[in-house]
Design goal:
220 residues; alpha/beta; 8 helices; 20% strand
């Protein structure tokens, strides 16, 4: 299973966003994590459709769109049209999870389900064969720069075990507080897609991405 770095542009410098995305791609990032916040589901507002439309397709990166918004089915069509490759919705924000997944797949895109730190991995059991990606939040969603919640490791292990019991190889993604110093713990727990904002975009981006990619090679 591929180990994938998904830099979160929430931590990027939007004055030079295109340049920073290019560096990430050149040094081995495969996804670009796009955090959409509505100020309701989470206590923050980020960016939306126009930014996604302006960057999609620029560097051949997978657009991993994380909708931290209430009732996300309202915007599935629009984000797919704007360039999302994966539309990732919160279990806690959906009135009917299956209906949202069907909507995403009906648009020809991959579907992801995210769970917050306080939500058990068991809630995902009915959907394990219905999504291509499952995201475990290792911080409370909505704010960057938080410390990794250690209990997330047990949740990652449990989720990976549930998938393997069913012969499923869906991606397990982790978002929040992941740095070079702790990413091995996250990979060894069973995650294979790593979201990182601060530890990619703070400092030397090329060196930061390369360091993650070198660590990933140990798990090939």
């Amino acid at each position: 299973m591929d180990r994938i770095l998904a830099p979160s542009i929430l931590a990027a410098d939007f004055n030079v966003l295109g340049e920073q995305i290019k560096v990430c791609a050149d040094k081995g990032a495969k996804y670009l994590h796009f955090d959409v916040m509505d100020g309701m589901f989470v206590p923050n507002i980020s960016f939306g459709l126009p930014v996604l439309a302006s960057i999609q397709g620029k560097e051949d990166l997978v657009m991993d769109v994380h909708l931290m918004i209430e009732d996300p089915i309202r915007y599935v069509d629009k984000f797919c049209e704007a360039g999302a490759d994966i539309v990732n919705v919160h279990y806690e924000a959906c009135g009917n999870v299956q209906t949202v997944l069907d909507k995403i797949h009906g648009c020809g895109k991959k579907a992801g389900i995210t769970i917050k730190p306080g939500t058990s991995a068991e809630v995902l059991i009915p959907y394990l064969g219905q999504a291509e990606l499952f995201l475990v939040m290792s911080v409370e969603p909505g704010l960057g720069g938080q410390a990794f919640i250690p209990g997330a490791l047990d949740k990652i292990r449990r989720l990976r075990a549930l998938l393997e019991e069913r012969g499923l190889d869906a991606d397990v993604e982790v978002d929040g507080g992941v740095y070079h110093r702790n990413v091995r713990d996250v990979l060894e727990a069973g995650a294979n897609v790593i979201v990182s904002g601060s530890s990619v975009f703070r400092g030397n981006i090329a060196e930061n991405v390369s360091a993650f990619v070198e660590i990933f090679k140990d798990y090939e």
